[in-house]
Amino acid sequence: MSCKNIYITTPIYYVNDVAHIGHAYTTIIADAVTKYSKLLGYRTFLLTGTDEHGQKIEQSAKKNGKSPKEYADEISDSFRKLWDDFKIEYDYFIRTTDENHKSGVQFAFKKMLENGDIYKDKYSGNYCVSCEAFFTDTQLIEGVACPDCGKVTSVLSEESYFFRLSNYTEKLLTHYRENPDFILPHSKRNEVIAFVENGLKDLSVTRTSFDWGVKLPAEMNEPHHVLYVWLDALLNYATALGYGTDNSKMEFWQPKLHLVGKDILRFHAIYWPAFLMSLGLKLPDHIGAHGWWTRDGQKMSKSIGNVVKPRDVVETYGLDPFRYFLLREVPFGQDGDFSEKALINRINGDLSNSLGNLLNRLLGMAEKYFDFKFSSKLAVFKNEEIEIEKIISRLEDLMFKLQIHKYLEDVWEILAIGNRVIQNSEPWKKIKTNPEQVESLLDFIANLLAKVSILLYPIIPDSSKLIAKSLGIEISAENYDLLIRKSQKIESFNLTVVPPLFPKFEPKIESNNISQKNNIVQNSQIEENLAPLEELSGDGLISIDQFKNVSMRVGKIVSVDEVAKSKKLYKLRVDLGESRPRQIIAGIREFYSADELLNSQVCVVANLQPAKLMGLTSEGMILAVKDNDGLSLVRPERERKNGSKLS
Ligand code: MSP
What we know:
Number of helices: 21
Helix content: 40-55%
CATH class of one domain: Mainly Alpha
CATH topology of one domain: Isoleucyl-tRNA Synthetase, Domain 1
CATH superfamily of one domain: Isoleucyl-tRNA Synthetase, Domain 1
Shape: elongated
Structural class: alpha/beta
Bound molecules: 5'-O-[(L-methionyl)-sulphamoyl]adenosine
Strand order of the largest sheet: 3-2-1-11-12-7
């Protein structure tokens, strides 16, 4: 196992407001990638913290009748407490008001000055306090407003030190070219390149109009200047490791991944690498820029009162479901929408039905048939094992390229294999005739879940630990190596019952405020009142949304022809209320005469891809029920309008 160091960071959060879903999103992605790296046996260092200087904080503190430091202390604590309660495994929580950070920043500034990258001049331009960013006249909206947040900018004219950003234009472009994965996802990379290709201006990096910031090094004798908040803030990634002071953790340099939101990508993908080049420090491997969250399709804002507070969501729905939702719902880099309805769908469908149910089925069968203990040497499910190995081989790359939604889709494919195999094996029948085969089925499912528990640990750590406990294994780098990398199998199991994993929630029609716990359907109730539906449930359990993907419609058969050279097939034309009847080739000739069919209504799956049967195109499938005694068509009980939907 490699002992490579992996350094991962979140942005440091402004202390002008409490945490919202966007902050939780970045932090949870960072935590997931860190946990995954630990499983792979890497030494990790996860950094988070708070960004406490600048005019914006100074103004917010004033509004709240507090000194900037008092105000920063309070909000910084609330962030730290939130991450503690969310069990984020950060190694260090940095505050930009920490003395060692400030010393490190001054050290860096001196170094840039010595390198000739800093010079003094006069700045005159437009400044957005909310974004703490400068803009040229042509960048402003209607000549006054910030192009990023829309707020009115102010004109600054002051003496300032400048960083020679313009000198780095070519070096940055070369770096982007030579390191195609430097900015993830790739769509964002193109935006950055286009921006830099337009030419970079030198950057004003000190301010004299306020003083809530890091002072310039004393020997420069410039008491009226404070450092630009973004220079101060970006350097946190280095000072947190002791850069410029004791260098105590610099063995973790260089960063594997800086996670940021798309709004602050420019600072991280342009300014930051230029600063690092100036300081002679290695550039990060990746800057991952995620999209923004909206709520029920609307932009979140304090004035509308629709900001999603992560603590409220977790109190109602649980930490693991929240983590899963955030990481599964949206492809990294794209904007996403939070709604309780979507969250509940993920919990009831993916977590409860596919994952929780597979463990329940295993536990149920293990208890009933083998008193929880089983082992098998039969290789009945070799093909499925190969399929699973193939899926697993894709996962590491997906996680490190931040395609976590795809990673999860793949893990759910593994679960679908498990559920399908139970369904197809019909253990409830076979247990009487072939118990060895049922034992091998349980062995296969338990091994599958052992792998899944490890693979899901970075995403849903508490639930994964429970699954592992139930199987009698531990989640560890050692087991990752054995079960995931080396595809070894666990030879025997003695299962333990664990509490139901994912309580279901009443499906939500409308969502406004995060509802209280009373919409939880207590799992214990389901367990007590209903015997498990072993024979019909299982693979194929789908969410209502998946069901809605199938378009089933009523239509009238308007012509019936026999298909030449076939005893079984009719060529039907079925009127579904469209511009012409559909041609459907149906294998029902042995069961129905043409007279029985003509002018009668049937139900049709209408959105199947067209298929060819005996050289004829079939544009749908007629629904029928078949058993040992024959076949009957599914028909509406009363005549309905052609084209009406089944639901
Ligand atoms: N302090 C700077 C970061 C300095 S890092 C050296 C900052 N802080 S912030 O608190 O305003 O934002 C922190 C993160 O939250 C950013 O990555 C930003 O993209 C993210 N989000 C803010 N609103 C968001 C959403 N609505 N959705 C997703 N993320 C969002 O910027």
